[in-house]
Design goal:
mainly alpha, 0% strand, 207 residues
Amino acid sequence: MRFLKEARYSLHVAFHPFDGFWDLKYENKGKLRIALVILFAVTVTMILKRQYAGYVVNFNHPLELNSIDELKYIVLPFLLWCIANWSLTTLMDGEGKFKEIVIATGYAMLPLILVYLPNMLLSNVITLREASFYYLLESAAAIWFMWLLFVGTMTIHQYTVTKTIFTMLLTVVVMGVIIFLGLLFFSLIQQIVSFVYTIYQELSLRS
């Protein structure tokens, strides 16, 4: 089945990132739908992890959990990273297209699924003394993800190591700027709406 073959390629990228991301860019082996499926799977994984991780490592209150919040913690940063990286690399002679950035970022998130799911099951059978092993695997997943994101960014933009690190740090800064401008914009819209509504009330009372 074609979809399964494309999904298996994401495993190749995870374990052979240099070859994988090169083929993703120049052999057109990376697929947008697989990247989006991985993004969706990571979101579901994080929801399950927050709800069903063992009590030894899970400090979330079940009644306070909201699955929609994961959109803010997973999907929004994903979109912000892609937009900020594309905006920045366009000015820094990057060769990556927006679609390639989305695909590479999505593929880089696969380790979060590969580690977090079995780690969640493990958390239900470990003791407090063994919790450090759980956190070690969590850290390994994060490092693996960052490594893939680094190699993917370097490959699709054809940057040097130094330029890639600099670009990734700048991308985080640009993400912060976008969030700030977004909050400023919505605050301004809210004030305008409030002002217009106040005028409407004043006119209604005088008529």
